[in-house]
């Protein structure tokens, strides 16, 4: 949250949020953009032992506190379009025209849909996982 508050979600709550389950709505997120930190964690004996991967994205919520479907669809379309591009595909030359669409696409994803935590926030998030 913008005030630095960290809210930990169980996987099933996060999953239900993505399914747009009415039970998984967060009224406190109504009509807002929220920073989400998502972690893939290796578990041993029901305890987290290491972080395999981490993602930092903005999520947009509708008036009922559910993930905004249209915003999510646009975000997923942008990500899927950029995901399969090779480095060689970022700029293409067609005659006298240089097509840098993919570079602008990556910039849009970085500025509108991703966030980058500072070291303090990253440490606080990691502490939540291993606590």
Automatic annotation (TrEMBL):
Q: What is this protein called?
A: Uncharacterized protein
């Amino acid at each position: 949250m913008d005030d630095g508050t960290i809210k930990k979600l169980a996987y099933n709550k996060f999953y239900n949020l993505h399914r747009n389950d009415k039970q998984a709505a967060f009224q406190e997120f109504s009509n807002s953009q929220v920073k989400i930190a998502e972690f893939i964690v290796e578990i041993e004996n029901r305890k987290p032992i290491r972080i395999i991967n981490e993602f930092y994205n903005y999520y947009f919520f509708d008036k009922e506190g559910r993930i905004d479907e249209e915003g999510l669809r646009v975000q997923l379309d942008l990500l899927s379009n950029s995901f399969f591009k090779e480095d060689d595909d970022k700029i293409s030359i067609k005659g006298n025209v240089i097509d840098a669409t993919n570079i602008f696409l990556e910039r849009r994803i970085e500025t509108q849909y991703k966030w980058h935590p500072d070291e303090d926030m990253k440490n606080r998030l990691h502490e939540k996982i291993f606590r």
